[in-house]
Amino acid sequence: MVQFSRWIFLLSLFAATFATPVKRTGVQVEADITSISTQVTNLDNAIQAFPATGGSLFGTSIAALLNTIHTDTTSLETTLNQGTSDVTATGALGETVGRIILSAVEALEPTILDALMQIAAKQPAFVCHFTAALPIGGIPALILQDLQTLKTETVAFANALIADLPADLKAEATTLANKITNGFNIAIAVYQ
């Protein structure tokens, strides 16, 4: 009977450990934004490296460049999801931490918008390089799917962040989120 009671106690303790939500801090959110920043820069660089014209599938490593773009996109999606989870777990942010985090996100805006502008501008190249005559098809559809998923995850991250920011920072954050969402809308429209 004592052995049975000990097992019940240990199982209860184990269950309580996993049932208690982990409170995150602004420091964790800042670390997430740093990771997001690195991945956005990597994605922007990969998109810039993709040739706007010319080249061939094998001669200029077009397939490798495309794989890099897709891999960078997938990594960014994962980090955005983790960031959203951490922001939600953090709860309301104080004025100082809120300002630091908002400034870090504002610093990302030019790179995000550049990546979106580049991917939109290079749509003809993606279509040209990957026609039915080449061994890889459906690339523009894959890019569209990646853009739509990134938009959804970016909006979720932005909404979670806006909800946790102090009231005086919400309008600024909302304006920033709307500019980035508009950039996604433009790029997505090009691939639809």
TrEMBL record:
Q: Which InterPro entries match?
A: Cell_wall_mannoprotein_1
Which UniProt keywords are present, listed alphabetically? Signal
Q: Which domain of life is it from?
A: Eukaryota
Gene3D superfamilies attached to this UniProt entry: 1.20.1280.140
GO annotation, cellular component aspect: extracellular region
* Name of one Pfam family that matches: HsbA
* Signal peptide positions on this chain: 1-19
What is the official name of this protein in its record?
A: Hydrophobic surface binding protein
